[in-house]
């Protein structure tokens, strides 16, 4: 280690250890160690609330090469708890860049480690599954704590209040001249708001715990269930709310919102071994036969076994066959596991927002013609 360089250490709960160079904040952080496969989009990834309490490993070997730019963040702060890279670019090259990855993480108080064999780490996670880890990044000239000190951090359970930490603290509105949409915030990305604003929707954002009665009091024409972090079974109140909304207003669930929708209909969710994270995941639309490249970030999935008869599978992951989309057979409600708003990634699935607005039109036409769906 050269003079003045910072040291860093990543310890996994199974005892596997990696030592490298520190960057970002000088801090100790504990979270679930995961990996993401996107070649770009690190700024969007780090600020996506779905990565709350996760130490994110980037499989692409050089991260930070185009710097950090204004207007790209997907929430108000970095939500990841730590960053693991092969190499953090010290001199980014892009006209919009305003700071380096190191400066950005230091400003947000998040530690990072570079110079380790990220391929080995990812293979280990794929083989053993995601697990808890402790990441320590020291200040200049500081020594690393011994393993016993890090083990003390790892022995503490990770709190399961993920959604409570990232949801809106109070309702707010983003006015528009189009459809009135209530967006239930389990940890939404700014890209989701942008996608609805692009369609001129009149948006009301409400916290995750908002009861169905208060949502309906806003007289929405449709309700969107947002993405978010953690296990959907940790927020049973959300499924109960969606259960009360079903049949009373068209619904569109995204990522965690997709899982909550499935639970509300009587389905089951289960934890994946290492999840889907990145902006290059192929998904097949079973209705059209079209394969889309999608942005994803989830460690839980809707189980295909025991799926209620009222739910129809509409999308499948082409890599492992897991459920990526659902539709209610009788009510105006559907959901997808991936992110149609991208941020980062391709916009192959952006049309799903248009499909949601069409569902609203069809539901309203049905009411006018006396075809009651509630």
Automatic annotation (TrEMBL):
Molecular function (Gene Ontology), one example: glutaminase activity
EC numbers, comma separated: 6.3.5.5
Ranges for region CPSase: 1-179
Protein name: Carbamoyl phosphate synthase small chain
Domain Carbamoyl-phosphate synthase small subunit N-terminal stretches: 6-136
Enzyme class, spelled out: ligase
Active site: residue positions: 255, 339, 341
PROSITE patterns in UniProt: GATASE_TYPE_1
UniProt similarity note: Belongs to the CarA family.
Pathway: Pyrimidine metabolism; UMP biosynthesis via de novo pathway; (S)-dihydroorotate from bicarbonate: step 1/3; Amino-acid biosynthesis; L-arginine biosynthesis; carbamoyl phosphate from bicarbonate: step 1/1
Pfam families (alphabetical): CPSase_sm_chain, GATase
SUPFAM superfamilies associated with the record: Carbamoyl phosphate synthetase, small subunit N-terminal domain (SSF52021), Class I glutamine amidotransferase-like (SSF52317)
Role description: Small subunit of the glutamine-dependent carbamoyl phosphate synthetase (CPSase). CPSase catalyzes the formation of carbamoyl phosphate from the ammonia moiety of glutamine, carbonate, and phosphate donated by ATP, constituting the first step of 2 biosynthetic pathways, one leading to arginine and/or urea and the other to pyrimidine nucleotides. The small subunit (glutamine amidotransferase) binds and cleaves glutamine to supply the large subunit with the substrate ammonia.
Keywords: Amino-acid biosynthesis, Arginine biosynthesis, ATP-binding, Glutamine amidotransferase, Ligase, Nucleotide-binding, Pyrimidine biosynthesis
Biological process according to GO: 'de novo' pyrimidine nucleobase biosynthetic process; 'de novo' UMP biosynthetic process; glutamine metabolic process; L-arginine biosynthetic process
Organism in which the protein naturally occurs: Kyrpidia tusciae (strain DSM 2912 / NBRC 15312 / T2) (Bacillus tusciae)
Catalytic reaction list: hydrogencarbonate + L-glutamine + 2 ATP + H2O = carbamoyl phosphate + L-glutamate + 2 ADP + phosphate + 2 H(+); L-glutamine + H2O = L-glutamate + NH4(+)
Residues bound to L-glutamine: 50, 228, 230, 256, 259, 297, 299-300
Subunit and interaction comment: Composed of two chains; the small (or glutamine) chain promotes the hydrolysis of glutamine to ammonia, which is used by the large (or ammonia) chain to synthesize carbamoyl phosphate. Tetramer of heterodimers (alpha,beta)4.
